[in-house]
Amino acid sequence: MAEKENTAGSLTDPERPSPEVTPTKDRSPSPPASHAPAQPAAPGPPPDGGTKAWLQVLGGFLLVLNTWGLTNAYGVFQTYYSTELLTSSTPSAISWIGSIQAFLLLFVGIICGRALDAGYFYHIAFIGGFLEVFGMMMTSLATKYYQVFLAQGICVGLGCGCLFTPSIAIVSTYFSSKRALATGITASGSSVGGVIYPIIVRRMFQTIGFGWAVRTMAFVMLATISIAIFLLRPRIPPRKSGPLVIWSALKESAYASFVVGLMLAFVAFFVPFFYGQTYALNIGTNENLAFYVLSIMNAAGMIGRLLPNALGDK
User: Fold this and answer.
1) What is the pTM of this model?
2) I need a surface site. Which of 33, 69, 111, 193 has the fewest CB within 10 A?
């Protein structure tokens, strides 16, 4: 009996340490990990100079030369079509080819500008370069009005629209205090293209004929556009979401008036570039001088693209 009491007492001995109780782990499910994509790092301030920045200016210059500069040079085609290739068509109908090309150059930029923001620069650049070169090659084979309209008006116009907006937009992201000058140098490609293309093309019209003159022009475009695409590097991280057009911006009176002013300016902008040579010939101007009218107008435009912009940065 004593042994049993001792055994019972040992089980209830207050001095004996009680076994530790292991706390139960929380079995509640953990929240799912977020699968949201990491935000791209901020690009930092523009370099505002340096080799890479100025190479962007060169690349943009070459694209503007082959887009806006090509459109500014349409007057030499207007004259040739009116007097040689498309004599059965009226000058007004022929000018529609260049007008559609100019319209698409600006209108397609709405879509391509948004594509550039989304990170698709190289996609639209390769598409634009292909359309321009292919359109000029097809123009060299054209003999009918509708063929020239489709090749030079539609195809080349679409290509110009794909290339023009990115050429200006990328350059502006590399500069701050020198932005106006850099943009002006880039935009002066339109004047250079409007000077050299009419002179070269007219000379080749006389020596090797229309077909090979336009094909040679297409090869020059292929080389210069390829160099431009190689040089240009978008600096701003892609913005995948967002509207195609920010309509709320038109509620700002300053911006809305700026847009309306540009629209009215472009209504008459291309008239002298399209009809200048033809008008000079019709009033009896020497033939050699008449064909230089277009190049002279474009050369004068270079002053307006460079001087005000240089002063604007002061």
Assistant:
1) 0.80
2) 33
